[in-house]
Amino acid sequence: MTLFAALFSHYRRHPLQLVALALMILVATTLWSGVRQLTEQARASLSQSEQVIAGRQQVLRVDGAGLTVSDFVTLRRAGLCVMPWLEVPRQGQVGVVIGVDPLAAACFDGGGGAFDNAALRLESEPFVDIGEAVRLARESPAAERRPSLVLIASGNVTAGALPGGYRLETFARGPETGELGESFLLNLDALGVLVLLITALLLRAVYRLGIVQRRESFALLHRFGVPPARIDRWLIMELLTLSALCILPGLWLGRELAGLLGQGFGRSLQGLFDAPLYSISGQWLAPALSMMAVVLVACLADFLVPGGRRVVGSRGHGKLAGILLGLGLLLALLGPSLIWVFAAVAIVFAGAGLLIPILIYRLAERAACARADPLVRWRYRELAVMARQLALPVVALQFTFAMVLAIQALVTTFEDTFDRWLAQRLEAELYVPVPEGRSGEAAARWLAAQPELKTSGAWHRVIRGRAGVSVPGGTQTPVDVFALSPVSSLLTGWDLLASGDDPWASLAGEQAVLVNEQLARRLGLSVGDRLELQLAGQRSNLPVAGIYADYGRPAGEILINGRLLPEQFQPEFESFSISPGALSRARLRSGLESVWQVSDITLRDNEEIRDLATGVFDQTFLLTRSMTVLTLALAGLALLIMGWVFFTGRAWYFRLLATWGLSRREVAAQLTRLSVGLTGRVALLALPLGIWLTWVLVHRINPLAFGWSLPMAVYPGFWVELVGLSLLIGLGIALLMGRQLRAGVAMPASATSMTGGER
Amino acid sequence: MSQPVLDARDLGKSFASGAERIAVFSGVSVSLAAGQSLALMGRSGSGKSTLLNLFCGLERPDNGVITLLGERFDCRAVEGFREQEKRWARLRRRQVGVMFQEANLMPALSLLDNVRLRARLAEQPLEQCQAWLDRLGIGELARRYPDQVSGGQRQRAALAMVFAMNPDLILADEPTGSLDRRTAEEVSAELFRLQAQTGVALVLATHDPELAERCRMTLDLAHGAGSGRAS
């Protein structure tokens, strides 16, 4: 028999351990590479979006009509450097492809120096030749978004050089996201790191258990003259081989997972930053090598750092855990930026990871000392042994519980808040956009004249455009402005985050403005602060009467009374929100069609929009939920396997109880109380960590990352579900062991060797 | 002669090995009264431990009848497995002390707590436990854990556990097999001394002819099937 065969014989006897180890590497790789793939896509998408459009300008028609090929021809014949830009939704996939004309882009190289970088290589998505984009657009008539042509102008093009009927505007594919994009990516990175940490802990736990059981074989081989270094080398080889076999399929599964979740994730990215999700070519080598390094470090840390291991429960660990917890909590409270808060979370998790096994161990020891009944005392002492022996999977499960609790609370709170928020925003039954080239003024007069609307209905007009705002003495910030008139009952039901006395009356009286949370945070605004407002060159100074929640977009917004808009204000968009009451929809339609002199207008049912928005939202959180559920399943499975293996090592002591006259049912009851006792305590001790993490997500990370906060809410019902799940894992361990104990009475030969005899 | 503590008739046991069955022993009969001792002799694999397991219900014979402390166990009886199991468990808990070569103690409990646990299961007073350890000469080690004492001291603690339950029958499977000669002599001397004092019946599986000689009867399983009859 060769040395390798002798070493590997352990897994011939314990194939389950080998399967568990391979499964751990596979699932860890899948989860991590799935998150990483999505993060890389998001990073590339945001970066490309910013890089390509940075400092660009576009040409628009003054009459607001859409651009056509003839506009492009007119502008090029006028000697202007413009390039067509056509975005087409990817059929059956996430994101868009962007069609550009390489010939037209050639003038950018010399003049604007714009499209001469790697962002515009036609062979790399999302950019394709415009002819290809047109073909794709024609092939997908049912595309969710109709492609619209944009004409990008080089930096040399000035407003004065444009032919009549055209104007220049900054080209932006979405609102200015500032550092929020980076924060979003940091959040994703943190999720990836957390998933990797948990899976690495589980991997280490399974591997270490095998190593502990193989120690006697190693000692025997050493006595036979095999140098320890050679054994270590073989162990590393064994691990590398196993990693190589499991990591590659794991990476492939991770890509599949990312593809599966990409739809919801793409919508999330689009919703948050107006940046579509581009697909990127997959990399194999770097992630494979990274994962292999993680596997090696997680499993062989003891070999790499000799003497680094210390016994769980030692006084030093307790002190260190206390220091880490104190430091982390303080940093989470006072951390000035997102990176500090993430560091604080990592420190608190490290502290909790050290503390929890010690805590369970000491509580069990104390309980054992306090009990007079020797059987109960034995059970508590066994629990203490388990807490030490299963410290790693216990900590991994605890982290997962805390993460699941926090994310579940965040998502559920967001769902509740978002539903309420959406219902308030879509309070009106109907949404009517003003047709292209028509004015809302005449329609507003017609609506005001309808007696049914006055008595039983409600309506208001919304004019959307851009404005500049600043605090006194500060620099001006561009914001979206929503001019409302009249201030109807459809608005006054909005929940405001902060408000003065009757803010809606102040808005109706043109005495104040309302601002969204993002703007309030960015400018440090409170109710009562005065705001310098610049609307189409006209300045005014008004106080803030209220701050409203606005989830999802990072753009700053203000609400003003429509009567404050100057004549020269250029609206970008106009619409009406109408609850017609006794006025029939047919009458409303015909009346507005008559006012606008168009044959067909859009009367959109807000209920449908609400359903659509809710559907998009559900997709948005699919990624987070799926990741947490998968991680929870993995952690649960790992503890189940580890618990089973641990109990297998101590099976003799349960058989001893049977030898001493406990019936099988009584032995099974002892086993169940032990395993359920451990998993239940893990879940209970995870609750405070989960609640703290919820607080950090709601009050620290979310405002820093997205510019808006949520009310802090906890969901005891979900706690009960998690505790229930932990009990199920405990019952699972007991069930597996119960079957093993029923299999027959083995001799105690191995009872004092290996892990079995530890206390 | 009073009613035997243990009476086994025509016991046989075999194990499956692939498609065939390998007979360990057959036709074994034993009768043991209170205060008597029986040594089970034989090579490794001759079935000594298996026979001990049959005597306390940890394994089932293929054929034969065992009467233990007045309770009759017939392998051909129509009585359900669970019912027999319960009766065996009740006897092991209160009246039959089982002692192995090693691993008789719970590693998570001190020596005293181990003795207390065994006494508690047998519903015996816990106050006597320290006294049993004292009688076996390890009273001062009562608070120590099994891994903090020597093999001989662990076996003495195991003896204390068995005697603390005040049994009618002790089944000892090579109780000194893992000890050095001197310690083994000391432990076996204690065992026989206490057996004589308490009048408990003893069945001892051993390789050691000297130890077997100290027993009143010997059953040699060395010749396999059909050889078992106490002499």
Please tag this protein with its features.
heterodimer; A: 759 residues; alpha+beta; six-stranded mixed sheet; six-stranded mixed barrel; 16 strands; 60% helix; elongated; B: 231 residues; alpha/beta; four-stranded antiparallel sheet; globular
Q: N-to-C SSE series of chain B?
A: EEEHEEHEHHHEHEHE
Q: How confident is the prediction overall: mean pLDDT of chain B?
A: 87
Give the CA-CA distance, first to last residue of chain B: 16 Å
Share of residues in strands of chain A: 5-15%
**CA-based shape of chain B:** globular
| Radius of gyration of chain B using CA atoms only | 17 Å
Counting helices, strands and paired strands, the structural category of chain A is: alpha+beta
Note the main sheet of chain A: 6 strands, mixed
Describe this structure in words.
The complex is a heterodimer of chains A (759) and B (231). Chain A is an alpha+beta fold and 759 residues long. Among the domains of chain A are: 56-170, no CATH class; 427-610, no CATH class. Helices cover 60% and strands 13% of the residues of chain A. Chain A has helices at 3-13, 15-53, 69-77, 102-110, 130-139, 180-223, 228-273, 285-304, 315-334, 338-370, 374-389, 391-425, 440-448, 451-456, 503-508, 517-523, 585-596, 606-620, 622-649, 651-659, 664-706, 716-742; strands at residues 57-61, 82-89, 96-100, 127-129, 149-153, 166-170, 430-433, 458-470, 477-485, 496-499, 513-516, 530-535, 538-548, 557-561, 573-579, 604-605. In chain A, the strands form two sheets. A six-stranded mixed beta sheet of chain A has the order 4-3-2-5-1-6. A six-stranded mixed β-barrel of chain A has the order 8-9-14-11-13-12. Chain B is α/β, with parallel strands linked by helices and 231 residues long. Helices cover 33% and strands 25% of the residues of chain B. In chain B, strand 7 (169-173), helix 6 (181-198) and strand 8 form a beta-alpha-beta unit. In chain B, helix 3 (111-121) crosses helix 4 and helix 3 runs parallel beside helix 5. Chains A and B meet through helix 11 and helix 20 of A and helix 2 and helix 3 of B.
